Amino acid sequence: MPNITLEEAKTKVLALQHQIVEKVPKDLVISVFESDTSSLMSCGGDRKKWIGTGQVDLQPGLDRDKFLDDVRDSVSGQAGWKAGDSTDKDGARIVDLLHDDGTHLIVGIWDGPESLQIDSFSACFDFPEYQYGEEY
Fold first, then answer.
1. DSSP labels, 72-130
2. CB neighbour class for 86 (10 Å; exposed up to 12, middle 13-18, buried from 19)
3. pTM
4. Which of 30, 59, 90, 104 has the lowest tally of Cβ within 10 angstroms?
5. Alpha carbon distance 124, 112 (integer Å)
C-alpha cells in the first residue's frame, strides 16, 4: 500500500477533477462547484480516504459521448491510470477512472438540469487522529 498523506491524496484527486472540469467548453458552463473540504471515509482501522465532488451546470449542447470518450482516453494515457465505461443505476453512461494506488473518480452527465458530475475518492492513507464528522 502506498504511504501517502491526507494532503497528497486530496491534491491528486483535486488535480484530476480540475483537469476534467477544464475540458468542458467555456460557452456551455453555467456554474462550477468543486468541494475542497470533506469528511473522510474509512478504509479500515486508522486508514481513511478523502472524498470530493465536482459539478458543472451546463447549457444544452454538450456532445456527451464525445466528452466522456475524451475524458476516458486522456486519463487512460496517463501513467498508473485505467479508464473504462460503465453505467449508473439508471443505465446512463459513466466513466470509471482508477489509479493503481486506489484513487477513483466516477464521471457522468446528469439530466434535468444537465450537469457534469464527478465523484472522487482518494487513495487510502493513515490518519489515526480523525474525529468523525470533521472536514479536511
1. HHHHHTSTTEEEEEEE-TTS-EEEEEEETTS-EEEEEEETTTTEEEEEEEPPPEE-TT-
2. exposed
3. 0.92
4. 90
5. 34
**CA–CA distance, 103 with 115 (Å, rounded to integer):** 23
pLDDT tens-place values along the chain, 136 residues long: 558 999 999 999 999 999 999 999 999 999 999 998 999 999 988 899 999 999 999 999 999 999 999 999 999 989 999 999 999 998 999 999 999 999 999 999 999 889 999 999 999 999 888 888 888 9
With CA atoms as reference, report the closest residue to 71 among 86, 60, 59. 86
Interaxial angle between packed helices 64-76 and 6-21, expressed in degrees from 0 to 180 and rounded to the nearest 10 = 140
Q: For residue 44, what is its C-alpha cell?
A: 479500515
| Selection from 72, 69, 49 nearest residue 124 by Cα | 49
- Confirm if 48 and 10 have CB atoms less than 8 A apart: no
Query: At 67, which amino acid appears?
Result: F
